[in-house]
Amino acid sequence: MNRFNVRKVAVLGAGVMGAQIAAHLVNVRVPVVLFDLPAREGPKNGIVAKAVEGLKKLKPAPLGVAEDAALVGQANYEEHLDQLRDCDLVIEAIAERMDWKLDLYRRIAPVLAPHAIVASNTSGLSITKLSQALPEAVKPRFCGIHFFNPPRYMALVELIDTPTTRPEILDQLEAFVTTALGKSVVRAKDTPNFIANRVGIAGMLATMKEAETFGLTYDVVDDLTGKKLGRASSGTFRTADVVGLDTMAHVIRTLQDNLADDPFFPSYATPPVLARLMEQGALGQKSGAGFFKKVGRDILRLDPAKGDYVPAGGKADEIVARMLKKPPAERLKLLHDSKNPQAQFLWAILRDSFHYAAVHLADIAESARDVDFAMRWGFGVSQGPFELWQAAGWKQVAEWVRADIEAGKALSKAPLPGWVFEGPVAENGGVHRPEGSWSAAESRWVPRRELPVYERQPFRENVFGAAAADPLKSGEEVFRNDEVRVWSRDGEVLVASITAKLHLISPTVVEGLQKALELAESRYQGLVLWSPDDVFSAGANLEALMPVFMKSGAKGIEPEVKKLQDLMLRLRYAAVPVVAAVRGIALGGGCELALYSARRVAAMESYMGLVEVGVGLVPAGGGLADLARRAAEHATAAGANADILAFLREGFTAAAMAKVGTSALESRKFGYLADSDIVVPHKDELLHVASAQVRAMAESGWRAPARRPFPVAGRSAIATIRAQLVNLRDGGFASAHDYHIASLIADVVCGGDVDAGSLVTEEYLMALERRHFVSLLEHPKTQERIMGMLQTGKPVRN
Ligand code: NAD
To answer: Phi, psi (5° rounding) for residue 619?
Structure first.
């Protein structure tokens, strides 16, 4: 296969989706030009320019750092069509109208590069019909690329081919979307709304209907169908509000317009309450009201009987919440047998989802795996309908569903397909098995597509029943204690995985990591710090230190802090390279582990910060010493008289205000990632990239940095910082205790009471960190913050 280089992407349409797709391309550093219609008045790029400006304010943020909006190229079809010539990929995301899309394709066809892939982000139009308007030369390179809103955060991208799409085009696009954009691909058939929206929206409609049948209010339904059910925390009705009721209505209309023969057709009717809300212009979150409405700090829910909003806050019954905590088989049996209306409601919506998925499998997806993945990645459920059904006991659940269909309780009279009860699926006890997942259309087990891109995912996500390898039981285990597993996949690169809750760093973790370093130095090329879940480390385990504190007071903690600092220095000056594979939160001590590694590879969704101020402490795992050293190095690199203080400012502010980067890119801006560190778009490629880094560093003769003293900014800089802090305190922007902690942070990063330019060592600064840490531990206000955090998980402002 020829290498598919994507040097530049054009996105056509700067609406909700197009602008955010362009933003995500910027996040992952793919050059992009965003097109829209020429503005009728003012500068011709007016429409695009406004959309790009809007990206800076949108929540959740589509950009890793807002300033990067400047990297989105701006263009309009009247002046800049020529710019399409050097685009390798064109993503069309204009308004959902077949005639408008076809017009635009005709317009751009003459200027497309002869190899460019052209893909539509349509949610509901037929990809095959769209392709028919294209010149013969473009047809083989045309397909659907269906992103989910918001595209930065939703993992799913559905790729859809047509009878004329060349197969390698989709393979190339799948590789690009996976590695470069970090998305997870499902191939969908060209049927209305593809897979995720078809199953997901039918599920939401079913939920709305059953909620009415069982007389449940929206707040209760959302509590029942959110986290407790293993689904997105916004539940059902709030999800609809967030998506936008107009967008949802649009997807429903596609079902109504195209699926007259579907046995579930009657259940595609627009719910009357949805129609009424739309008439009133209540489109959900964007218009300020939908099923819910926020008034000041209060959340109100619509009471359809009254036609007005009333206070929300209804929750699931305790007994039902307890049922939902049970393992699948027990859970479903409890729900099925219960007389509690909430439990009956839950059984009803699960039954509807199994019924719907089974009846439609043959038409909409190649295999059951694609349905389950589409629901996981596009709707944020922890298990798709088929895997949940299988986990709960295939045959028993099938019998219950059959009985409900026969009793007229289900949404459609359509019987479950024969393969549910007889043949390989029934014998297997479900649709997934290690060699593949069931294809109802082809009556066979379909294995996963093996593309080279998936060799980059050592632990590729898989469905229940596929016997996916558990990373924490894989490879050769060389050491393990209660909170760290040290292992290797290849005998060359050692991996240390913290297994403690939230990967909190306790003395046991420190010991485990010391051991990992010893082993790495004795037998391996280097060490990767990686864990399979989406937390790097939430920081030091304060609770684990409580017994020491109770017994010996703050002074008793000092040796433990010293051990943590020693670990940091050991990481930095190890004889082999240590690479931190960061994903999710890396806070406090977790952030410091990453900082003291030789290199960091970070998933795009990494949130790093020195947040100790939140618990009334200063960073004392070397975080401040590292900040001082980096500032000195940058100042030295910038010239003989460069002012160290200037290079301290960003890092000092970040630590003093406990700022956390909201992406890997922002974490880099705060100094927690170096320019040379690597940002990895796909979370499942992290271990591969980190291991490759270790190998490359070892192969290139990596040595730890030289230990040398460095200059600090000294007492005059401390005075300057304090003067500014006084203003903040006196202006009421910081409490007296915040001022006190910030002064101590300033003291460490400037090197204490010494002349500007004095040379210090890391050990010296770490001793200062320890001193201030211990003094703060004795401070009542700090103790209040720590206790508050341990009890409520929320910072105390005092
Ligand atoms: P939108 O209404 O926010 O934006 C549409 C853009 O198309 C606007 O910028 C508009 O200026 C431009 N446009 C309108 N008429 C045009 C024409 N005749 N020629 C060229 N450009 C024109 O729409 P959106 O929500 O971003 O949806 C865009 C596409 O993405 C649609 O096909 C939609 O089905 C699909 N989609 C939407 C979502 C979603 O949640 N909104 C999710 C996935 C896919």
So the answer is: -60, 130
Q: Tokens representing 32?
A: 């992009």
Gap between the terminal Cα atoms of the chain: 62
pTM above 0.70, yes or no: yes
Dig out the tokens for 219 from the structure. 């707040």
92 Cα: distance to centroid of ligand 1 (angstroms): 9
Cβ 16 under 6 angstroms from ligand 1: yes
The torsion of the CA quartet 355, 361, 365, 366, rounded to 10 degrees, works out to 140
Cβ of 149 less than 6 Å from ligand 1 = yes
Candidate from 24, 94, 104, 197 with most ligand 1 atoms within 8 A of CB, to mutate: 94
Model confidence over 445-465: pLDDT tens digits?
999 999 999 999 999 999 999
- Return the closest-CA partner of residue 539 out of 594, 485, 579, 576: 594
Atom of ligand 1 nearest to the CA of 97: 32
Long-range contacts of 696-703 (CB under 8 A, 24+ apart): 697/526, 697/577, 697/579, 697/598, 697/599, 698/525, 698/526, 698/576, 698/577, 702/526, 702/576, 702/577, 702/598
How many CA atoms lie less than 13 Å away from 560 in the CB half-sphere?
23
Tokens 């009357």: give the residue. Answer: 272
Residue in 140, 179, 177, 176 with CA at minimum distance from that of residue 5: 176
Ligand 1 atom closest to Cα of residue 77: 20
CB atoms within 10 A of CB 499: 17
- Residue 14 Cβ < 6 Å to ligand 1: yes
Find out whether the beta carbon of 240 lies less than 6 Å from any atom of ligand 1.
Answer: no
Ligand 1 pocket member 386 (CB < 6 A):
no
Q: Decide: 229 and 316 in contact? Cβ < 8 Å.
A: no
Q: At 484, is the secondary structure helix, strand, or coil? A: strand
Among protein residues, the one whose CA lies closest to atom 4 of ligand 1: 15
* Residue-wise pLDDT tens digits, 1-10: 457 899 999 9
Q: For residue 149, give the ligand 1 atom closest to its CA.
A: 40
DSSP 143-183: EEEEE-SSTTT--EEEEE--TTS-HHHHHHHHHIIIIIT--
What's the CA gap between 469 and 480, in Å, rounded?
A: 19
Q: Looking at the CA of residue 18, tell me the nearest atom of ligand 1.
A: 26
pLDDT band at 795 (very low <50, low <70, confident <90, very high): confident
